[in-house]
Amino acid sequence: MSEATSGEKAKEKPNLVVNIGGLRLKNPVTTASGTFGFGPEYAPYIDLNRLGAIVVKGTTLQPRLGNPTPRLVETPAGILNSIGLQNPGVDHLIEEALPFLAQYDLPVIVNISGDTVEDYARLAEKLGRTAGVAGLEVNISCPNVKKGGMQFGSDPAMAAEVTRAVKENTDKPVIVKLSPNVTSIVAVAEGVARAGADALSMINTLLGMAIDIKRKRPLLGNIMGGLSGPAIRPVAVRAVWQVYREVDLPIIGMGGIVTVEDALEFILAGATAVAVGTANFINPRATVEVLEGIEKYLVANRIHGIRELVGAAHRT
Amino acid sequence: MSPMSDVMVLKQIRLAPLHYRLTLAAPEAAREARPGQFLHVRCGETLDPLLRRPISIHAVDREKGELSLLYRVAGRGTALLSEKKKGDTISLLGPLGRGFTMPSVSEKVSVVAGGIGIAPLYFLLQEIGARGQAATVFWGAATREQFFSPAAPGQNNDGAAGRCFSVMQGICEQGHKIFQASDDGSVGFHGTITDLFEQYLNSHRSGEAVLSRYGNIVTDHEQFKLDQVVSRVYGCGPRGMLKGLCGVIRQEEIPGEVSLEERMGCGVGACLSCACKTRDEKDGFQYRRVCVEGPVFSAREVVWD
Ligand SMILES: Cc1cc2nc3c(=O)[nH]c(=O)nc-3n(C[C@H](O)[C@H](O)[C@H](O)COP(=O)(O)OP(=O)(O)OC[C@H]3O[C@@H](n4cnc5c(N)ncnc54)[C@H](O)[C@@H]3O)c2cc1C
Ligand SMILES: Cc1cc2nc3c(=O)[nH]c(=O)nc-3n(C[C@H](O)[C@H](O)[C@H](O)COP(=O)(O)O)c2cc1C
Ligand code: FES
Predict the structure, then answer these.
(1) How many alpha carbons fall within 13 Å on the CB side of residue B237?
(2) Which of chain B's residues have a Cβ under 8 Å away from the Cβ of A229?
(3) B297 pocket-lining for ligand 1 (C-beta < 6 Å)
(4) HSE (CB half, 13 Å, CA atoms) of B265?
(5) How far is the CA of A91 from the centre of ligand 3 (A)?
(6) Which of A93, A100, A166, B239 has the highest CB neighbour count under 10 A?
(7) ipTM over 0.90
(8) Is the pTM of this model over 0.90?
(9) What is the mean pLDDT of residues B266-272?
(10) Helix (H) or strand (E) holding A240
């Protein structure tokens, strides 16, 4: 290849950089919290440096044991999980997980959960002054813990209060993760936007359950769980579409993304970035394949930057 | 090596109505595999069923670069797997997980298997046998058919090779002794394999030879000391059976390891679906990941509810 053509090629390379509430990502592909561990689990399969960001497993102030088993049931084109936020606690995250990720050129977003507003505030304060944390994703929507969790996410006023508490305790970008298990996701999004959220992440899992007809009892140890995977994609795309119209915040879209086509749907609906979740379990290279697919799509459609595509379905 | 690979099916044989043995051309996985490890197998081509299925590595032939799985059709995933034919490709993750600790050469090894639980233990027996060490194998199943031998006519057909594969024969050829038990009494001891194993331990203690009629060996009357008969136990099978087995060996203070099953998502330690309770000094128990810290656990550390 002559230098001239390789130079032209370089010029043609579309701009994948996106901005998520002040956080600059080299590309829009991230991982969904709880589906990618803390990074080392997938390092044998992909070069973590290629990710736009890594969103690590949900973290609480104290270690959590998690829910009884079975914690996973497969349903049509999806899974129900009831992990129950099992995690080693924030101190362990800071001491053990973050040093590993510091080897990479990779923004780390820490997903946080609490039982009380005070828990969220203390987590924000602690992680806010921790080097190696690029931003916080506030989980107000986990269906798998009894206290807090989803109650915060289902009420716009409570969601706003948690958001405010986090914002007051950190200068880092605050991304609030929304639950689809609400009457109006737009109302919750508006509430957290007013409270100062820098970005939104949607959607968390849909509350669901499955019953063993032989034993005549629920299949999950925790009875109910969160539905994820391809089965929930249309619900997630709809949520992104609705919130994009009403709320002026960048959105990380997720819910059932397996292929580049799925990711493009979210971007066209209004997501600035995307997260790959359950698909990692089936294809550990799914994130990188989605990224490569986005690049190809932009080149094939002569689109210079990914940002031109965000919300494009609203404009045509 | 990336632990994800597309490999080719070399052979798929049906051993019993619901039991299959699948042989794959997977030189790298075969080279790296250790007894007790598993593969996370993509059984279908579509998004439904969605997840991969964990299947133990049952045998390897490192020279030929082949690896075999032994599995029972339990639902949709394994049914799809059973439809794979010679020349098809299958996506694998693995070898994954922590396998069995190899015994020292001087140890007296007993292996206790329930049903399809023989699958990973066969590989262990292969490795132990290859270094000239003989183990005593206890294998229980529901019925005669589930020992897959003799094969039902037309089922256990190895095609061109002209020789049938038999789990029983394979184990004997590796130099091991084998006892059988069946739930319906159609083969060997009428009862559970754990009961048979317990009787075996007791018969040695009392010097009786009550077991010679259930196995292909005659009990050796000169060996009275338990640790000269069994100094290490390996088990795999249904949860209830393993619980019983762990109870027996704990009582006898024999060290042992068991391979556990739990529902898996990722298979690589990321999702925390495959939790199993193990002893922990602080909280009484903790959850550990069957896919990473297991599937093999020390018999002492597992907490059975
Ligand atoms: C580490 C490990 C190694 C295994 N090795 C083997 C092997 O060598 N040979 C073999 O035949 N099977 C093995 N299994 C079990 C095998 O993974 C399941 O039988 C299989 O996933 C069932 O999938 P399916 O789609 O056919 O059935 P499904 O329709 O998913 O389920 C059928 C039935 O099996 C139960 N089940 C589903 N998944 C599991 C699971 N992971 N563990 C226990 N029960 C389950 C369900 O509750 C249901 O009753 C292993 C499991 C683990 C965790
Ligand atoms: C096993 C599992 C664990 C999860 N854990 C968390 C968590 O700790 N915090 C959180 O905010 N979301 C968690 N989620 C939700 C995902 O991040 C994501 O929002 C959801 O699964 C939808 O995306 P998907 O369909 O691509 O998986 C979890 C999902 C799964 C499947
Ligand atoms: S299957 Fe995901 S952690 Fe074990």
Answers:
(1) 23
(2) 47, 50
(3) no
(4) 33
(5) 23
(6) A166
(7) yes
(8) yes
(9) 97
(10) helix A233-246
Nearest-CA residue for ligand 1 atom 31 is B75
- With a 6 Å cutoff on the Cβ, whether B271 touches ligand 2 is yes
CA distance A117 to A138: 11
**Token pair 């009392």 in the structure block, residue:** B206
Question: Which residue is closest to A33 within chain B, CA to CA?
Answer: B271
List residues of A with catalytic annotation: 142
Q: Rounded to an integer, what distance in angstroms lies between the CA atom of residue A16 and that of residue A25?
A: 8
Query: Considering only CA atoms, which of B190, B197, B147 is closest in space to residue B169?
Result: B147
Answer yes or no: CATH 3.30.710.10 is held by domain A3-314: no
Would you state the structure tokens that stand for residue A134, as one six-digit string?
Answer: 């690029």
A230-285 pLDDT, tens digit per residue, is 999 999 999 999 999 999 999 999 999 999 999 999 999 999 999 999 999 999 99
- The model's pLDDT over B113-127, given as tens digits with 9 standing for 90+, comes to 999 999 999 999 999
At B161, which amino acid appears? A
Residue type, A190: E
Domain residue spans of chain A: 3-314
DSSP characters for A149-161? THHHHH-HHHHHH
Three-state secondary-structure class, residue B107: coil
Nearest CA to ligand 1 atom 35: B74
Contact assessment for residue B72 and residue B53, using Cβ atoms and an 8 Å cutoff: no
Taking CA–CA distances from A56, the nearest residue in chain B reads: B270
Below-70 pLDDT ranges, chain A = 1-11, 142-150
Tokens encoding A279: 């698909």
Least Cα separation, residue B52 to chain A (angstroms): 6
